[in-house]
């Protein structure tokens, strides 16, 4: 893993949103002004909005609240919390350590160099403006018991965000969160294990918190931030603590009641319930009205032929 300590120290100095001269930054870090300029360019490539004014120095466009393990652990119990500011992928970090992790261990990052979404897509992960969180969970009941788990996690995150003032956040089958028909967050669950043994799950989440418009230019669908969805944006450390707590509670509930215990909660939050939709299944397009989910986590679609359940990794959902 690369040593980013100098760059992270530079971010911490700029986080107050004030101007800092290149000379003062260099003196504090023991490097030249030219080196500061090079580091600033790397930070900008990470998605940090840093600008320079002649005679005043460098400044972030706005103050930045950095994630802090102590602040998070003051609000929630977590058996293992790793904060890796710059990482390839929080999911991969936990997957590489599955045999060493306590139940409920969490990895957080400020920036992912290789964040990933569903079906191998890249998850855009600019520094410090969003939340990238992964949690390890062991299901002793095995892989079959993980059926529909992304739906349960979606419910947990949506309810947590609603409790923080984002009352109109909804879920989109099978693994996204929406606000006003725009994508707010994505969920990626990766699983290891063998048939007949416990399932080892890594539950990843990327939540857009306050991503700048220019950072989202590469996203190929309508997206939004929690800043738009929330009546008073919570601090990122409070947000992380709330999500960790809610995920712990919800996963424990899921082990007791299964997906059946969440169907009503899902339907209450379903962004597309009773709305006309298109299902894209490879090259095939099926149009109908979304009627919620069943006990296997399948989407129920009503067409002229009746209500049919659809499930599988190659299905996506779009409002007509």
Concise structural overview:
With 320 residues, this protein is α+β, with helices and mostly antiparallel strands. The protein is built from nine helices and 16 strands.
Overall residue-averaged pLDDT value: 89
Radius of gyration: 21 Å
Instruction: Report the portion of residues in β strands.
Output: 25-35%
Gross geometry: globular
Share of helix among residues? 25-40%
Poorly predicted ranges:
none
Largest sheet: 7 strands, mixed
Q: Walk across the major sheet and give the strand order.
A: 3-5-7-11-10-9-8
Task: Please tag this protein with its features.
alpha+beta, seven-stranded mixed β-sheet, five-stranded antiparallel β-sheet, globular
Could you characterize what this model shows?
The chain has 320 residues and is of the alpha+beta class. The chain has nine helices and 16 strands. The chain has helices spanning 5-14, 22-29, 33-45, 69-73, 90-95, 149-163, 226-229, 236-257, 263-269, and strands spanning 50-53, 57-60, 81-83, 86-87, 106-109, 111-112, 131-139, 170-172, 176-179, 182-192, 199-207, 276-281, 284-293, 299-303, 306-310, 315-319. The strands form four sheets. Strands 3-5-7-11-10-9-8 form a seven-stranded mixed β-sheet. It has a five-stranded antiparallel β-sheet with strand order 15-14-13-12-16. Strand 1 and strand 2 (57-60) form a beta hairpin. Helix 1 packs across helix 3, helix 2 packs across helix 3 (33-45) and helix 6 crosses helix 8 (236-257). The longest helix is centred in the C-terminal third of the chain and has 22 residues, at 236-257. The protein starts with a helix and ends with a strand. The model has no long low-confidence stretch (mean pLDDT 89).
């Amino acid at each position: 893993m690369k040593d980013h300590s100098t760059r992270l120290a530079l971010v911490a100095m700029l986080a107050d949103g004030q101007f800092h001269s290149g000379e003062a930054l260099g003196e504090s870090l023991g490097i030249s002004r030219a080196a500061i300029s090079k580091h600033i360019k790397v930070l900008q490539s990470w998605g940090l909005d840093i600008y320079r004014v002649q005679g005043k120095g460098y400044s972030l466009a706005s103050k930045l609240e950095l994630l802090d393990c102590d602040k998070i652990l003051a609000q929630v119990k977590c058996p293992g919390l790793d904060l890796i500011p710059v990482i390839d992928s929080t999911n991969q970090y936990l997957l590489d350590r599955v045999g060493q992790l306590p139940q409920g261990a969490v990895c957080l990052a400020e920036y992912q160099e290789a964040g990933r979404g569903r079906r191998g897509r890249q998850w855009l992960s600019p520094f410090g403006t969003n939340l990238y969180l992964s949690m390890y969970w062991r299901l002793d009941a095995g892989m079959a018991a993980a059926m529909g788990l992304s739906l349960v996690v979606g419910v947990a995150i949506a309810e947590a965000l609603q409790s923080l003032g984002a009352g109109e956040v909804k879920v989109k089958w099978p693994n996204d969160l929406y606000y006003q028909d725009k994508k707010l967050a994505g969920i990626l669950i990766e699983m290891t294990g063998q048939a007949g043994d416990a399932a080892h799950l890594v539950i990843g989440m990327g939540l857009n918190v306050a991503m700048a418009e220019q950072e989202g230019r590469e996203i190929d669908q309508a997206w939004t931030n929690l800043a738009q969805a929330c009546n008073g944006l919570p601090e990122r450390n409070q947000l992380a603590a709330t999500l960790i707590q809610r995920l712990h509670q919800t996963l424990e509930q899921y082990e007791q009641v299964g997906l059946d215990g969440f169907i009503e909660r899902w339907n209450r939050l379903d962004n597309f319930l009773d709305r006309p939709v298109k299902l894209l299944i490879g090259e095939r397009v099926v149009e109908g009205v979304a009627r919620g989910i069943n006990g296997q986590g399948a989407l129920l679609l009503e067409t002229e032929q009746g209500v049919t359940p659809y499930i599988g990794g190659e299905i996506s959902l779009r409002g007509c």
